[in-house]
Amino acid sequence: IDSNVVNPTSRSVRNLGFLMAPNMSLSAHISALCGTCFAQLRSISRIKNFMGKKTLEIVIHTFISNKMDYCNGLLLGAPATEVKRLQKVQNAAARILTNTAKREHITPVLFDLHWLPVEQRVKFKTLLNVHKAIHGTAPAYLDLFSKCSSADINLRSCDNFTLNVPFTCSSLVLNRAFSVSGAKLWNSLPSTLRSLNDTQLFKRQLKTFLFSDYF
Predict the structure, then answer these.
(1) In terms of Cα–Cα distance, which of 119, 140, 137, 153 is closest to 199?
(2) Less Cβ around it within 10 Å: N or C end of the chain?
(3) Dihedral of the CA atoms 213, 170, 125, 106 (nearest 10)?
(4) 2 φψ region: left (φ > 0), alpha (ψ -120 to 50), beta (else)
């Protein structure tokens, strides 16, 4: 570039706060994220007795949930082992908030808090971006979807709210592309959800659907 030689790097590089590895692995980013969140949780646990539960929950969402939700759409299709590492962070935050012992089962705690697990939060963010892209409220670079044509609807028993899924090879990286994974995830939703035009209504009903689907 401009008579300079640019050599590829074998290290992860930070792009808009997200660590990207040369092989598209998420391990480096998740390791750094888990380390930061657990450090924050240790600090929060030291001062939690000086706060009420509502204040403590706000602090946890500010310093933990926001970090975990940032760019979490990139985690769609990530290996289950990597998602499980992030789930341990959320579980630890829930235990601190509710004073739950380590040996107690965490699923009822998440249910009572009405927290979506990490995997469902990733789906929520992805589907929300797809909804915005379809209805023209997302940035132009997310306009990657097309609805099934009338011929597709007649031949494949689709409805008017189904998206075309681009053809890809068996590459895991290609299948995780937003245009592919987003369309597949959207088509898996009930037609009543896919037909909603109002974004706020879609968000509320989508969270209810994902929550009931998991629990």
Answers:
(1) 137
(2) N
(3) 50
(4) left
Is 90 exceeded by the pLDDT of residue 53? Answer: yes
Is the pLDDT assigned to residue 130 strictly greater than 70?
Answer: yes
Global pTM value: 0.84
Measured N-to-C along each axis, helices 27-47 and 53-60 cross at an angle, to the nearest 10 degrees, of 160
Query: 3-state DSSP call for residue 196?
Result: coil
pLDDT confidence of residue 170: 60
20: β partners? 13
pLDDT tens profile 7-43: 766 677 787 777 777 776 788 889 999 999 999 999 9
pLDDT recorded at residue 10:
65
Q: What's the token pair of residue 103?
A: 């040996």
Does pLDDT of 210 surpass 60?
Answer: yes
HEC assignment per residue over 169-182 = CCCHHHHCCHHHHH
The CA distance from 192 to 202, in Å, is 10
Q: Rounded distance, CA 92 to CA 4, Å?
A: 48
Q: CA dihedral defined by 128, 90, 11, 168, rounded to 10 degrees?
A: -40
* CA neighbours closer than 13 Å in the CB half-sphere of residue 175: 7
Residue 192 CB coordination number (10 Å): 10
